[in-house]
Amino acid sequence: MLEISLTHFLVVSSILFCLGIYGVVTRKNAVMVLMGIELILNASNINFIAFARYGNFGLQGQIVALFVIVLAAAEAAIALAIVLNVYKTFVNINVDELDTLRD
Amino acid sequence: MALKTEEMILNMGPQHPSTHGVLRLELQLEGEIISNVIPHIGYLHRCFEKHAEAMTYPQVIPYTDRMDYLAAMYNEFGYVLAVERLMGIEVPERVEYIRVIMGELQRIASHLVALGTYGADIGAFTPFLYCFRDREKILHLFEITCGARLLYNYIWIGGVSQDLHPDFIRLTRDFIKEFRPNIKELNDLLSYNQIFIDRTANVAALSKETAINYGITGPNLRASGVKWDLRKNDSYSIYDRFDYEIPVGSGERGKTGDCWDRYIIRVREMEESLKIIEQAIEQIPGGDVTSAIPKRVKPPAGQIYTRVENPRGELGYFIISDGSLNPYRIKVRAPSFVNLSVMGELCKGWMVADVVAILGSIDIVLGEIDR
Amino acid sequence: MKSTEEIFSILKEKFPDSVTELLADKPVEPFIEASPLEIDKICIFLIENEELKFDSLMNLSGVDDANGDKEEDEKGLETIKGGTLSVWYNLESIELNHKITLKVSTERENPEVASVAEIWRSADWHEREAFDLYGIKFLNHPDLRRILMPYDWEAGYPLRKDYKNPEFYQGMKVPD
Amino acid sequence: MIYDWLTEFTGSEIIAAFIQGWLPLLFFILPFVLVAVLAERKVSAHMQDRLGPMRVGYHGILQTIADLIKLLQKEDIIASANDKKLFNFAPVLVFVGSYAAFAAIPFSGAFIGSQIELGLLYIVAVTGLVVAGILMAGWASNNKYSLLGAMRAAAQIISYEIPTLLIILTVIMITGTVNLYTLSEMQTSYFWNWMIFGGPEFGLQKFLLIPLMMMGFLVIFISMLAEVNRTPFDIPEAESELVSGFHTEYSGMKFAMFFLAEYANMFAVSAIIAVLFFGGFQSPFGYLGNSLGWEWLVPFEQFFWFTVKGLFFIFVQMWLRWTLPRFRVDQLMAFCWKYMIPFAFVILIIAGLITVL
Amino acid sequence: MNLSDQQFTDDNIIITKVEDLFNWARLSSLWQVGFGLACCAIEMMATSASHYDFDRFGVIPRPSPRQSDVIIISGTVTLKMAIRIKRLYEQMPDPKYVISMGSCSNCGGPYWEHGYHVLNGVDRVIPVDVFVPGCPPRPEALLEGLLKLQEKIRNESFGDKNV
Amino acid sequence: MLTEFGKVFVFILAAVLFVIIALVVAKFIRPARPTREKLTTYECGENPEGSPWVKFNIRFYVVALIFLIFDVEVVLLIPWALVYKNFGFIGYLVGAIFLILLGLGMAYEWRKGDLEWIRPKIKEPVITKSPPSEQDKENLILVN
Amino acid sequence: MGVYEIIFYLFAAVTLVSAVFVVTSRNIVRAAFNLLFTFFGVAGIYVLLGADFVAIVQLIVYVGGILILLIFGVMITNKITEVDIKTGTIHTLPAAIGVGLFTGIVGAVVLNTEWRVVDSEMPESTLTTLGTMLITEYVLIFELLGILLLIALIGAASMARK
Amino acid sequence: MINYLQRFWGGLLTILIGMRVTFKHMFVPAVTIQYPTVKPELPERERNRLYVNMDDCIGCDQCSRACPVSCIDIETVKSIPGEDLGKTSNGKKKALWVIKFDIDIAKCCYCELCVFPCPTDCIYMTDVYEFSEFERSSFIYDFVTLTQEEIKDKKKNFAEMQAKKDAEKAAAAKKSTAGGAEEKAAKKDEPEIKSDSEKEKE
Ligand code: SF4
Ligand code: SF4
Ligand code: SF4
């Protein structure tokens, strides 16, 4: 399988995706969870572009990827703001200890 | 780890580019905001007072030089005034004039260093070198008079060690002529630069009452709007013969008594000192300068507190004599020592960068603080 | 503008017992003797009284009077027993432009003087210095630590006349 | 194109590209840095009535070489409290980040590392590496001054990136290209075709644009100054406060790397400004080569002009550095958010309006 | 093992050439720890100011000892300070040099006799390369001391204490 | 055919190589004489006190937040900037509205004072003249 | 095996390895800096896929923006009392197993699907085309994004403030 | 709004003014003295390294008593009657052999206090400032012109004279031996001492 094909990209992206999920579920620290999410988003972006490249979607894949990146940025900003907020109130940001958020 | 609290302790000094010597400031920071500043001094404690007790009166003079090494002449001036009052010596006219001229030149030299280093602290390095360039000329004047550049041992009890150099008057005139424009240049380059003003104006304003209660003196006190200058208010030597202004801080660019005021006061004082020198070298009489120097300096038992307006403020000598050849006790009231003690109050609530600005504006000399 | 005599009379009738004497016979400068533990009250009066208004403390210096009985040990280093240490205050009123000199004496073995650091902040460091160099304890001083000498300096108070230097400080030879 | 020539010469594109990759490094950056450091010292010296290096070689021309060789021999200290991996990697990152920018800079018509379509954006992108590197350095040093300095540097660089981007956007809008090469080609022949004078095509629009462009130039120049941490924006290295900022703990060659990167950056930004507003490698008035008919001369002239423009802006940077005091960190930020960005904004909007009218 | 720590017994021509080059580099770019102690420090500043201009010799002050080669002990070394000075010196990377400027750092100077808090000579805590006499030394004297130090460096060879 | 990006990549490689070579060469020349003191963190000659952790001014963080948003917006505008002319005024409007939104956000931040640097009120030093009460000597013993 | 392949494998390796470090490293800051390489590798992959503009945007936004923000976040919300900040992980093993299985499944699906691959040639300059699309068909989304970002800006800032 | 812009332009203006100043200075000739090549001539009152002219020193110890740092270390022995040590340039009669005259120039603080009291103006400050050293010990300057033998000899003479002070007539014999001793010493000695001893032989 020397000739690089769509599959290669898909494999890469899926592994990245799973790594992201792994990070999300295992990490305690909220910031680390965020990092996991970023990984997932990247993986999905690779998919979009790969499909756009190998299927005949022209540039739509890229534009979607663009939007995804924008959304990711917004999400990161909000999320980190929340993290900071949480930190200010609880002086730790370990997701599993934040039950107090509920009540 | 030593520190688990939310505060960070940041050390400034003893080795730090901008602590003007071996001062150590312990800054307690929150974010970049200062919550407290603890000055640690004594890194240059050279036991002056112990030495003074072991020396004869004339031998103390070289050590007074080494206290405030930026204003050595003035330290000698103050010391010999004290001893002369203790012994009731009348010094010749010419000596008085020479002392005043030297003192004022020294004031200019000292202020030049203060201003230059202040510029360097704020980040402008060039004014620093311009100031030192001008200072070199003054040092040359001293050098031709007494042969030393920094620590002179020139003013002696009852006189001065040697008469003025024949060229002195002429050279001083030249110096004054070429120094006036340089002051303007300094203003263009630094004093009225917008960035500089932003950095210093409104920063750490020192109120009248606080200043007095902390015993702040000299330019710092005047910057706070108190018209208090020992040369006028408690006149010594022959300062009452000249006419000159006492510049007082008015908060032109910000609050009264902020860093910029403290800075600009010094600039203006240099101009005033130039005036004094001009008048002095016009009026200076002839005569012998060593006639009144006593063979043996042996004051009667008693104590005295004498003070002069040194470039940094009120320099006081508290001398106790037991009637022997050596002083029994000399306590020096060093202006910087007192001025520095307000540091902790001034810095509260400002940022690290401001600490540098504030420290520079107070203009301390460690040799005098630690003695 | 008041002379020391007037001030003394004022003080005398305010604090009959704690202000002991006025010495004007000594050459040069007259000064007022006061009692070490009352000095803070006197100073409060001095700064608050309308016609005195001593708003600034120019200088505060400790002195070792060395008037106890001395005994030489071998090597000719003498130690002093008894006698007094004293503290001198030079006050001034910037507003009314007059000065006085106060003196308090306290015994050498347990020198205690009431602190005036709360009254004039400038006294703060002066008192610390006096403590550092003479070991005079200023009661009720905000933080009375050594100021010039290292904080871990064991070897006593250098400016006392009978001070003996230690051999080493942190492995460095101390000159004597 | 040197590249094509190299390709024929070596017969392989890779090798050609590699050679080309090293060309600017060895024959431009290093000599340039050596000269620039010396120049900085000389310029400052003469501004301060001094002489500057005099004794190493004639008038100290060998000074910086000596410095470099000395730095080679300096012991390399990694304090026990440092994070070794990151500590070692940070200089690499910083240098690469600042050097990668040169790939897209058109030194002359004939020599441009890569005619990448998105040259401008690419340069903006790689500066991100520098920020990361600085943060890394500051954090890995495990030193208060370094950490504070790094945070300041990062915050400063990113906030001043916005006005820069906005102005770049303006230029893109007017010229309609992001390719540095085409950008410089557009402003050809005479200096009134430069962007600062409203760009190539004549007409009312041009004259409306001139004041905007002047303003824009001012804004981007200031922002660029801030991005390379030069006075009055040298807070991260403010040696009177934080001893020497994020490279306090670095010694020997690694420090030299930061040093190189700083000066490389200086040239990079000067080059960008030159390309955006001053016609890149175009000469202000025709080419000798063309008039004499020596075609081969033109690229060299272009190279000459490009260097001259770059050096001029570097001189201005030095000049400022040895004249001005330093901002305080909050004033710096305020200056960015309250002056630079709004200005850039207004310029952008108006410029767009003008172009569509 | 690296070049600087190697001892070369046979005087190989290339080695000597390299040595000369390196020595030249070291001696002509002595960066100084921006650090002053007392009165002498003022003269040191005067030396780096326009009239005498340290920069001519390639000496520039570096705020951090990590990047400096020479530390100029300019002034009275008190016991309190000596510890810090030692630490500073230790934190400089090899090769490093020390100039002791002025009577005080040479031997306690005017304070050697009754100074209960003065270290009599900085060479009791760190190895000094050149002693510059004077109280304070004229700037020229300091420069002359620097030249002496450069001479010293010129004759160093690999494997020495400093190189 | 090596694409333009290929060349860029090569450039980066070249830079990396250069740095590595330089550092390695230095490694062969420079001495290595670590001592315990030498490896202590530099802090103006003092012993490092406390942790290097700085409770950073929250400002830095907010700046980064705002920057991120602005960054994205500008990036998103770039494709528009290239082509909007072809669509005349409408094209301009599309971007202009976008920009105005950006400006609104900016103005909001400004009004809300997010662009200011947090600075606690500077308290003037207060001078107490209360007579010190007679106090026990224990803490004085602690002092000496 | 040509250059293209080598570079692809290189980028893929960089991406995945660093990603692994990101999710496993116990030192947050290290993790954050590893993320840098992940983003970089992904950008490289975009380039290989001919999406140069997206790659650049990836660099600008992720490396230049989000990464910095993350690092700031780490530095602000963690007491860096010693060089490595330990971060706890929870139920690692089950997660590992689950994710491993999932990976297997996805991988199998990816490998066994017959992708209909049409090698669509990229338009000459992606950028202008993108711009055109933004102004024409995606104009609404474009403006919506603008509003979204505005909200994000205000929200984030106000949340950071209180 | 107005002063918002005013501030900006004002700032810009001041910056430009500053830049003008520095730019002007680029063309001001440098004030630097290029030290090793150019050496400024120092004023005649320059205070640097001390020098003692031993021919004139009468060993009166004034200088070392005046010195605050006590870095002058003088030892003298009385000359025995009849020994003529010659006169100083200003006509003072020498009476003491100066057998030790060390100045620890490393301690000296160049205060010039030692110069004024000297009755014969034989200790004075020169303008030599370039004498930095690699070794601290080499800062101790020894100005004594006598050799070790002579010093021992003088000590001996003096001791003997002390011993036999009461016996006056013995002194003559001592003197002759002393003369002999002088002769022995004179073989390897500086001219002025030699002249002394020669004078004695007559
Ligand atoms: S040697 Fe003299 S000038 Fe230098 S520090 Fe000591 S006392 Fe001051
Ligand atoms: S100059 Fe001063 S210190 Fe030096 S020997 Fe003479 S008296 Fe002593
Ligand atoms: S004062 Fe003069 S004559 Fe007397 S010992 Fe000293 S140098 Fe000799």
Q: Helical segment tally of chain F?
A: 4
On the 0 to 100 scale, the average pLDDT of chain B is 85
Major β-sheet of chain F, in short? Answer: none
Strand content of chain B: 5-15%
Most residues in contact: chain pair: D-F, 83 and 72 residues
Q: Helical percent range of chain F? A: 55-70%
SSE order of chain B, as H and E? EEEHHHHHEEHHHHHHEEEHHHH
Count the DSSP helices of chain B: 15
Written account of the structure:
The complex is a heterooctamer. In chain A, about 75% of the residues lie in helices and about 0% in strands. Chain A has three helices and no strands. The mean pLDDT of chain A is about 75. Chain B has helices spanning about 50-55, 55-65, 70-85, 95-120, 125-145, 170-190, 195-200, 210-215, 220-225, 230-235, 260-285, 335-340, 345, 350-360, 365-370, and strands at about 10, 25-30, 35-40, 155, 160, 300-310, 315-320, 330-335. Chain B has 15 helices and eight strands. In chain B, helix 2 packs antiparallel against helix 3 (about 70-85) and helix 5 (about 125-145) packs antiparallel against helix 6. Chain B is an alpha+beta fold and about 375 residues long. The two termini of chain B are about 35 Å apart. The longest helix of chain B has 30 residues, at about 95-120. Chain H has about 200 residues and is α+β, with helices and mostly antiparallel strands. Helices cover about 35% and strands about 10% of the residues of chain H. In chain H, the strands form two sheets. Chain H has a three-stranded antiparallel sheet with strand order 2-3-5. In chain H, helix 3 (about 150-165) runs antiparallel to helix 4 (about 170-185) and helix 4 packs antiparallel against helix 5 (about 190-200). The N and C termini of chain H lie far apart (about 105 Å). Chains in contact: A-F, A-G, B-C, B-D, B-E, B-F, B-H, C-E, C-F, D-E, D-F, D-G, D-H, E-F, E-H, F-G. One iron/sulfur cluster binds near residues 38, 102, 103 and 136 of chain E. One iron/sulfur cluster binds next to helix 2 of chain H.
Notable characteristics:
heterooctamer; D: 357 residues; mainly alpha; 68% helix; H: 202 residues; alpha+beta; 3-stranded antiparallel beta sheet; two-stranded antiparallel sheet; 12% strand; binds iron/sulfur cluster
List the SSEs and their pairings.
The complex is a heterooctamer.
Chain D: H1 2-10, H2 13-47, H3 63-73, H4 84-100, H5 119-141, H6 144-175, H7 180-186, H8 204-227, H9 252-277, H10 288-292, H11 297-321, H12 329-356
Helix pairs in contact in D: 1-2, 2-11, 3-9, 4-5, 4-9, 5-6, 6-8, 6-12, 8-9, 8-12, 9-11
Chain F: H1 4-29, H2 58-83, H3 88-112, H4 138-143
Helix pairs in contact in F: 2-3
Chain G: H1 3-24, H2 28-48, H3 52-77, H4 92-112, H5 126-135, H6 139-161
Helix pairs in contact in G: 1-2, 2-3
The complex binds iron/sulfur cluster (3 copies).
One iron/sulfur cluster (SF4) binds at residues 38-40, 75-76, 102-104, 109-110, 135-136 of chain E.
